[in-house]
Design goal:
By secondary structure, this protein is mostly helical. It has 5 helices and no strands. The longest helix is centred in the first third of the chain and has 41 residues. The C terminus is likely disordered.
């Protein structure tokens, strides 16, 4: 069981790293597109029509992929004071319930994002010659990744008996709760 979990974790680590890189590249391109828009507007007196919708689409990608990475790495917002003071058994239950809720949220994002993409696929996006449905693809992909990463954490928590740390390893100034 541990070998399968380790193999799955390695695969999801690669997916996580790819999502992070894609989000970072999207942020860089969005910044370049906005700079081109400003240059075109104020220097050339002619704004390119494609830069704003392309920037918004890239922003959707890097926000939703970055959110999924945050779920896997535990960087998302949370109210952890109750976890800090809860006994070990209760803390495990609270962590499991949290992961189930996050996973359900990711599934809902993926379901409704896919539905919106399908329903709007026939219309063209203003300013870009691509289907309007592309606006909702990041919602679906981000939802799938959030659900997968949360499921991974839930499986590690429940089946492998691993305690999900309350702090990240790269924050040595914080002390993790251990019993």
């Amino acid at each position: 069981m541990r070998a399968e979990l380790a193999a799955l974790s390695r695969i999801l680590a690669v997916v996580n790293r790819a999502a992070l890189w894609i989000a970072g590249i999207g942020l860089v391109f969005m910044t370049l597109f906005v700079a081109w828009q400003v240059f075109g507007r104020y220097v050339l007196n002619q704004s390119p029509s494609w830069t704003e919708p392309a920037s918004l689409l890239l922003m959707s990608w890097f926000i939703l992929l970055g959110s999924a990475v945050g779920v896997r790495e535990g960087n998302h917002l949370g109210f952890e004071i109750a976890l800090h003071y809860a006994p070990h058994g209760l803390r495990q239950i609270m962590l499991a319930v949290t992961e189930v809720l996050v996973m359900l949220f990711g599934i809902a994002m993926a379901w409704y994002g896919t539905s919106l993409a399908v329903e709007t696929w026939s219309a063209l996006m203003p300013g870009l010659p691509i289907p309007q449905g592309f606006d909702y693809v990041p919602l679906a992909v981000g939802g799938v990744l959030i659900a997968l990463f949360s499921l991974e954490k839930l499986v590690r928590l429940l089946l492998a008996g691993e305690d999900v740390p309350l702090v990240r390893a790269d924050e040595p100034h914080l002390v993790a709760v251990k019993e």
